Amino acid sequence: MEYVRLSGQFPKLTKSAVTLGKFDGIHRGHRKLIRTILERKKEYGELAVVMAFVSDRQMIFTSEERRTYLAKMGVDVLLECPLNDEIKHMKAENFIRQILKGDLQAECVVVGEDFRFGYERKGTPELLQKFGEKYEYETVVISKEMEGSRKISSTYIREELKKGNMEKIRDLLGRPFCVSGRIEHGRGLGHRDFFPTANIIPPKSKLMPPNGVYVTMSHFEDGDYPGITNVGYKPTVGESFLGVETNLFDCDLDLYGRECTVDFYKFTRPEQKFTSFEALKAQIRKDIQSGKEYFQNENSSQKTLRFESK
Ligand SMILES: Cc1cc2nc3c(=O)[nH]c(=O)nc-3n(C[C@H](O)[C@H](O)[C@H](O)COP(=O)(O)O)c2cc1C
Ligand SMILES: Nc1ncnc2c1ncn2[C@@H]1O[C@H](COP(=O)(O)OP(=O)(O)OP(=O)(O)O)[C@@H](O)[C@H]1O
């Protein structure tokens, strides 16, 4: 997949199917749009292009996580376009003429039914359709994917992430919330004293759930390991950065330096400051036990698959 972080000129493409939006998290609604451009690729040989408008806010998926994910889906080009004043104030027709048609040579534009763009948010799916006749492209408008009576959106997922509601997030994303990164060395206290942990330091750009303990599944290139993860600053020992620290059940491999994706299944308790290291260790023993019970529970076994629903 070609990845372009725009800082001025748009790339010149030929014959593309373009989908537009912020695309944070690539939730079930986003995937309907992406599947549509992939179908166009298959049927008409159009380039599958995702144009993602980006700002400085923390994201459900970091830019890197999103890139990896879209490449796996089969997207040809990811354009990250800063949501700056120039883009925000651009007249809708200019955006269509200069960028969609002029640069990207769109044959097809795919958006959700409430998508808005350009000056005074006057760019609507209807307007895209209207100009499609003049500039010769097709517009596909996708109906909103719902969860009950509420539209799925990145905003909805952010709200649930703030509450640590990992089960709900899994429904909305159609897969678990995850953190990806390289396993780093901790201070080594855990390993020396009894429970080894695999540590990831998420970038500051990653939107995280509340500090606390979660039941997780860690995915490495050659295997998946259930475990229990602490997110936070380890107040008992005092750490200066936020860590994602996982005790993998029944795994004694040396994992340092390896790439890992940790899927979050369930929040179990907030992070606490303990009065002694012994008290912390006793609590972690209990955490490990409750994590193992989660995976042993027959009803939970279905939940541990890394399936992608809808
Ligand atoms: C399941 C689990 C739960 C944890 N809960 C807490 C906690 O509530 N408070 C805390 O200060 N540290 C917590 N920790 C972090 C420990 O302080 C940390 O594992 C230990 O200090 C070893 O750190 P090191 O690997 O950097 O040496 C937890 C770790 C794990 C794996
Ligand atoms: N639930 C959904 N079903 C179908 N299409 C959607 C859905 N949510 C968003 N889209 C469409 O996907 C594209 C990208 O959406 P975008 O990320 O901008 O919105 P969002 O997910 O609603 O996020 P936010 O809550 O931050 O506005 C847009 O064209 C949008 O209309």
TrEMBL record:
Name the domain of life. Answer: Bacteria
Keyword list (alphabetical) reads: ATP-binding, FAD, Flavoprotein, FMN, Kinase, Multifunctional enzyme, Nucleotide-binding, Nucleotidyltransferase, Transferase
The UniProt catalytic activity note for this protein reads:
riboflavin + ATP = FMN + ADP + H(+); FMN + ATP + H(+) = FAD + diphosphate
Q: Name one Pfam family in it.
A: FAD_syn
Keyword Heme carried by entry: no
Instruction: Name all Riboflavin kinase domain ranges.
Output: 172-296
The protein's annotated pathway:
Cofactor biosynthesis; FAD biosynthesis; FAD from FMN: step 1/1; Cofactor biosynthesis; FMN biosynthesis; FMN from riboflavin (ATP route): step 1/1
Per the UniProt entry, what is one GO biological process? riboflavin biosynthetic process
UniProt keyword Lyase present: no
Family in the record: Belongs to the ribF family.
Specify the protein name. Riboflavin biosynthesis protein
The organism of origin for this protein? Blautia obeum A2-162
